[in-house]
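Record type: monomer structure entry
Structure origin: computed from sequence
Chain ID: A
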Amino acid sequence: MGWATDTLAMPRTPVLDTHIHLFDTSRPGGVPWPEKTDEIYQPALPDRYAAIAKPFGVVGAIAVEASPLRSDNDWVLQLIVQHPIIVGFVGDLVPGGPSFAQDLDRLHANSLFLGIRCGNLWNRDLSADAKNPAFIADLRRLASAGLAMDSANPDPNLIGAILRVSQQIPELRIVIDHLPRAALPDDSNQVKEYWADLKTLSGNPRVFVKLSEIPVRENGGLLTALSNYRQKLDAIWDLFGEGRILFGSDWPNSDHVASYAETFGIVNGYVTQKGPTAREKFFNKNSIEAYRWRPRNPAQRLL
């Protein structure tokens, strides 16, 4: 697979991976995710990630919550403080809940805490939550703290809910995860509404998207040719432009479909064709705008 070898030979932009998950399956009591029967059920910790990702120019990563447990916010922060390759953490808090304000203030005291994730996970419903005044009030608190909101597992209902949140709190930085892997229905009207909502969201300069969960397998094999991905990626790129699209590997969840080399190779092949400026923004600068992370070592400073 020549594209993977080529990426190793490229100079260049320090890569910031904005979406990895950290967990330790050897902890007493186990972990909420993944299941014990899952092929990725083994410790996913910073040193293992660094060994896999550094050959592709990765100098830093943002950990995104993999647990709904309040205490796991503190566990991840305590873990990553010892590992400078992790530049920050997007945690899990429930806006509108009784402990949100207290937890947010406590976690925000740590500069590695970058925001929270709200989306189609942990049996939550952003469409319903966005109608709750207490939920919106806490997201305003998040925005006032200068923190970001990630989403998860997109479909038309989630994108519509994100739009309603954005319209109520236009100052909130929002990162839409896992595009273009949105679950779209057969109903053409719903699909049109989905793209119309994304277009409206693209008009807010504080809304970003991640090109994550890109690789696809068919008939037991990984699709590696860019022609398999270009149309969907172009549709997102044309909406949000080179200044608001980020790289996220989704490691180790991505291992269900492709290796890190394959995941990186596909997206790098696509973005490299956009030119060096676009590549620099995609792999590094845009993540700073979206998350306002701070370098923890010299390699993470973009010259």
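Annotation 1: Strands lie at 15-20, 58-64, 86-91, 113-117, 148-150, 173-180, 207-212, 217-218, 221-222, 245-247.
Annotation 2: The longest helix spans residues 276-291.
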